[in-house]
Specification:
This protein is of the alpha/beta class. It has three domains: about 80 residues, no CATH class; about 60 residues; about 160 residues, Rossmann fold. About 45% of the residues lie in helices and about 10% in strands.
């Protein structure tokens, strides 16, 4: 780890008690402690991307997702570890047997049989496991939040650069809104509020469709997930041509190599068919991705990109883009500039 103060490369023994051996100054984060490897200098680098060099605010959950980009657990590691454990246990058992009555020939035969059995199990079990293995964040949000508390204690009560406390952000009330932005994720709503979206667009920021003010245009932001697809479909059914549903669409996530892609259990075929019926624009690739249990959170989209997409969606809602593009709002096609 590099000391954030004197920039010396520190071994673990040189940074005990969150203090640099060379400059004696405290740092906030020990990268070896949590499931997400993060330290003070990495927080600063991530903050530069999340804030677009200091112009934009972000929330702690958005930092959590940013810190995990490209670092999600690989299901192969888990099954490989189990295989290694079984193999080593088998070898130990064979060695123990040799120390009693078995001959070397019998012991080597036993090892060969063990290897063959393990290989057969791997080739049979791996495809099944790969299709069903859950992929979740490597560290729980609550644990990550607890680690970040040290930042405030270390740096005189300051949050990381550009961060706002999403639990303390007040979503402003707009008395005469021109548009409603619906997003069920309170983290994203806090980000939008902190970045002045309500004032800039005369926008009511709400968490559900039943809180949309009457007779306004509607923009719906959602996760790339079955729940997100259903929310967008409900919005189109409720508000008709007044609604724009830019996503996050699965297609945008699939196109981004390092996007946060999480997975739960695969969906039943009937549920996948139901999602396609709700969203005629859904491609076979998107349906297959969702059906395999994949999803991606809207909060993982970096705020600069999120705000750019939202600006375009609001412009579409007001009819401020050309007529050829305006038809896209009916099916929710907006091209996200990366996920």
């Amino acid at each position: 780890m590099i000391c954030p103060h004197c920039h010396r490369d520190l071994k673990r023994s040189e940074r005990s008690d969150y203090r640099c051996k060379y400059c004696s100054r405290l740092f906030a984060l020990e990268p070896k402690e949590g499931g997400i490897r993060i330290h003070d200098l990495r927080v600063h680098r991530l903050a530069e991307k999340l804030t677009d060099d200091g112009r934009i605010h972000y929330t702690l959950p958005q930092l959590w997702y940013a810190a995990a980009r490209g670092r999600l657990p690989d299901p192969f590691d888990k099954i490989f570890g189990i295989g290694c454990f079984v193999f080593i246990a088998g070898i130990i058992a064979v060695v123990a047997a040799i120390s009693t009555d078995l001959s070397w020939g019998t012991a080597l035969t036993a090892v060969g049989v063990l290897v063959v059995v393990l290989l057969l199990l791997f080739f049979v079990a791996w495809p099944w496991y790969e299709r069903r293995a859950k992929i979740r964040m490597p560290e729980k949000l609550g644990d990550f939040r607890a680690r970040l508390l040290r930042w405030e204690a270390t740096y005189d009560g300051d949050l990381p650069p550009g961060m706002v406390d999403d639990s303390k952000v007040t979503v402003p009330v707009v008395t005469e809104p021109r548009v409603a932005v619906v997003c069920p994720d309170p983290t994203v709503l806090a980000c939008l509020a902190a970045n002045g979206v309500a004032a800039a667009h005369s926008a009511a920021l709400v968490g559900s469709l039943d809180r949309v003010p009457p007779d306004v245009h509607v923009v719906v932001l959602h996760d790339a997930s079955p729940e997100g697809i259903r929310l967008a479909a409900d919005a189109r059914a409720a508000f008709g041509s007044r609604v724009v549903t830019p996503g996050l669409r699965p297609k945008a996530v699939l196109a981004e190599e390092k996007a946060i892609k999480l997975r739960e259990r695969p969906l039943p075929e009937a549920e996948v068919r139901g999602l396609r019926a709700l969203d005629p624009a859904m491609t076979q690739e998107e349906a297959g991705w969702l059906g395999a249990g994949w999803w991606s959170p809207l909060a993982a989209v970096r705020p600069p990109r999120l705000l750019k997409v939202l600006d375009r969606a609001i412009a579409r809602a007001h009819g401020e883009l050309d007529a050829d593009r305006r038809a896209a709002r009916q099916v929710g096609f907006l091209t996200w500039p990366g996920a």
